[in-house]
From TrEMBL:
Keyword entries, A-Z: Ion transport, Membrane, Transmembrane, Transmembrane helix, Transport
InterPro entries: CASTOR/POLLUX/SYM8-like, CASTOR/POLLUX/SYM8_dom, RCK_N
Membrane association type: Multi-pass membrane protein
Name of the protein: Ion channel DMI1
Gene3D superfamilies documented for this protein: NAD(P)-binding Rossmann-like Domain (3.40.50.720)
Domain RCK N-terminal: 129-257
CASTOR/POLLUX/SYM8 ion channel conserved domain location: 289-386
One Pfam family cited in the UniProt record for this chain: Slo-like_RCK
Chief site of localization: membrane
UniProt key word Glycosyltransferase: no
Length: 651
């Protein structure tokens, strides 16, 4: 027989406790109201206890006031006479300590702490304009903030183009508090003066309230960066980015104000959809396309990655600057170049066609208009101002050397590609676009060869310049790598896996695989050209000690995002330079232009220009941190004996 169900009936005291609880959780105001009620009740009880012996028997209010004074001020305790009166006075004084010094102070302190925590959460909308907004926390955020706030050249450039206003960065993150703010400042390592220019707001970029909280519609640029994500995830970062674009577009249409967006996507196939999602100006940078092009170009040209890293990193002296053509209106590019002795006028971006053109040959005769964006290479933004008097024009020599034509096909190169991620098919197709190169590609990964082949086939068939062979093996195991004879390869490319849960795990595999590869190659005198790809910006220090060309994808994209946020024309410039055909950066020996073993920079420039190229600087492999020097002094001597390589730009 089942036991009878016991039913508990609420007692009056339970109802009272529930009522008090509901009042207390409403906030500090209700808590104070309850405490005031308790103080009044205790004062009344004290007055009633005093009434039998009180001198004010006809006035109960005086007794209650007497009790209230003992609650609030312990100093009255010594004035009372009689045992009962002293007992009541002592009890009231003890209650006063609890109610006033304990409960009231606790309520006010807790309210103040809660109020400060709400302020630190960044829920208050910012009331500034012409700032830069970063939507979402990712591995790109720290390098972007360091570029925008930590580099004096960028701060100066921003100030000149925004009516002498200092740059302010607003970061919209899902969690924002004082601890996260301080941790971020410690990672960025900003001076105290500029750390105040970083503002955190809490919220999600998918929510319209959060977009309003960061004042995105009043910003000079809004950056939407990607974060690390497994390749097999159903909801990719591109999906979240496009949803954010739709949210911003709705708000912008209602306010009739469209801020400029700098958007990072993973997959180039989502570009058209992203453009359709936002009606304003949007600079869309595709990570897979950008990194694949750069990897292919740097695989073909050893040490070229170091040049690109130098140009993209604003901390280095010598980089691209873009300026309007108002100071040279009416002059040709060749004439305007003579007014810059400490900067190199490389070319211009035609605003109407959005194409970068090099200032050599027939294009050097282009007449500059105010809308042209002039592209310079200089060591500082202040060096872009033209001099009063032009320099003497140099006389171009006759072409005494035959420039290598793009139609001349070189010997086939052996490329060993270790690992797999979603951009590997793009890398191979980019290599196939170099018409004067051909490759025997050996693709090694633990992933099924059949699945990899299916992914590669989605981009179409290769030309005969690519011969692809797929194997299943683990590059972390030294004996398995040896069977592919890495010492006989011309190029070895080691990429991280995007099938792991975190960037740290992915990089750990790459670094261990790189060590295993070094163990094999150190036995042979001729080392192939080795490139490795990492996914965690915290491994930036690895670049300083690495003997290989090291891609840190988030770091490269962060540099590019920050530069495009400051000057949108940088996207056109770098997109042009990274393509397989057209204007590119090259590393060439001095012997390519002259039989002399040493020349001054001023003497070498006409020789380079006679072949349709411009001299940007010099690469010295043994110079350490100063291996790359751009915008050379006219008296700078370049020697073939020290194995100097010329950094030139041409078609």
């Amino acid at each position: 027989m089942p036991l009878p169900l016991k039913v508990n009936v609420l007692q009056p005291i339970d109802k009272l406790k529930f009522f008090v609880e509901r009042q207390l959780i409403k906030g500090a105001g209700y808590q104070l109201f309850v405490i005031v009620g308790v103080i009044a009740l205790v004062s009344m009880v004290g007055g009633f206890l005093l009434a039998p012996i009180s001198d004010h028997q006809s006035n109960l209010a005086e007794d209650i006031w007497w009790a209230f004074l003992r609650l609030t001020d312990p100093g009255y305790l010594g004035d009372d006479q009689g045992a009962w009166k002293r007992i009541v006075s002592t009890l009231l004084t003890m209650c006063g300590y609890v109610l006033f010094m304990g409960t009231l102070v606790a309520i006010m302190t807790r309210w103040l702490i809660a109020f400060m925590e709400r302020l630190e959460q960044g829920l208050t909308p910012v009331s500034i304009q012409q700032h830069i907004v970063i939507l979402g926390m990712s591995s790109r955020v720290t390098p972007i903030i360091r570029e925008l706030l930590g580099i004096e050249a960028n701060r100066t450039f921003y100030k000149k183009h925004h009516k002498d206003k200092n740059v302010t960065v607003v970061l919209l993150a899902e969690q924002a508090n004082a601890a996260i703010h301080q941790q971020l400042l410690a990672e960025v390592a900003l001076p105290a003066k500029w750390s105040r220019q970083l503002i955190l707001r809490s919220g999600n970029a998918l929510q319209s309230e959060a977009i309003h909280r960061a004042a995105c519609l009043q910003a000079s640029a809004v950056i939407l960066s990607n974060k690390y994500q497994r390749s097999d995830s159903l909801v990719t970062t591109d999906v979240e980015t496009i949803k954010s674009l739709l949210t911003i577009n709705v708000l912008a249409k209602s306010a009739n104000t469209f801020p400029r967006l700098v958007v990072e996507l993973d997959d180039v196939r989502h570009t058209a959809l992203a453009k359709k999602s936002y009606q304003g100006q949007a600079n869309i940078l595709v990570t897979d396309q950008t990194i694949s092009r750069l990897m292919a170009q740097c695989a073909v040209a050893p040490n070229l990655l170091k040049v690109y890293t130098h140009l993209l990193n604003s901390q280095n002296q010598g980089r691209f600057f873009i300026k309007d053509g108002t100071s040279h209106v009416g002059k040709t590019l060749a004439e305007a170049r003579l007014y810059h002795k400490t900067a190199i006028l490389v070319g211009f971006i035609d605003t109407s066609s959005q194409i970068f053109k090099l200032a050599v040959g027939a294009q050097a005769k282009h007449r500059i208009v105010a809308s042209d964006s002039l592209v310079y290479v200089a060591n500082d933004v202040n060096l872009l101002e033209p001099s009063i008097e032009p320099a003497r024009p140099s006389v171009l020599p006759n072409k005494n050397r035959t420039k290598e034509t793009v139609d001349s096909v070189r010997s086939r190169k052996k490329l060993l590609l270790l690992g797999w991620n979603r951009r590997v098919p793009n890398i191979i197709h980019e290599l196939d676009s170099y018409t004067n190169e051909s490759f025997d590609v050996t693709l090694v990964s633990t992933m099924s060869a059949q699945i990899r082949q299916q992914e590669i086939n989605k981009l179409g068939q290769f030309s005969t310049r690519i011969n692809l062979t797929l194997y299943e093996a683990d590059y972390m195991i030294e004996n398995e790598v040896r069977q592919f004879n890495p010492q006989e390869q011309d190029i070895i490319l080691l990429v991280y896996s995007d099938r792991l849960d975190s960037a740290e795990e992915a990089d750990a595999r790459v670094l261990v695989g790189s060590m295993a590869l070094d163990q094999i190659l150190e036995q042979y005198p001729n080392r192939p050209h080795v490139l490795i790809e990492l996914s965690d910006p915290s491994n930036e220090n690895f670049l300083e000690h690495s003997k290989t060309d090291t891609f840190i994808t988030p770091l490269l994209m962060s540099h590019l995002l920050s530069q495009v946020a400051l000057v949108p024309q940088h996207q056109i410039l770098f997109d042009t330079l990274m393509e397989a055909e057209g204007v590119q950066i090259y590393l060439k020996p001095l012997s390519h232009y002259t039989d002399k073993q040493m020349l001054k920079s001023a003497e070498l420039q006409p020789l380079v220009e006679s072949q349709g190229e411009l001299l940007l600087g010099v690469f010295q492999a043994d110079a350490g941190d100063k291996a790359i020097q751009l915008s050379l002094n006219a008296e700078r001597r370049i020697s073939s004996l020290s194995n100097d390589l010329l950094i030139v730009i041409g078609e």
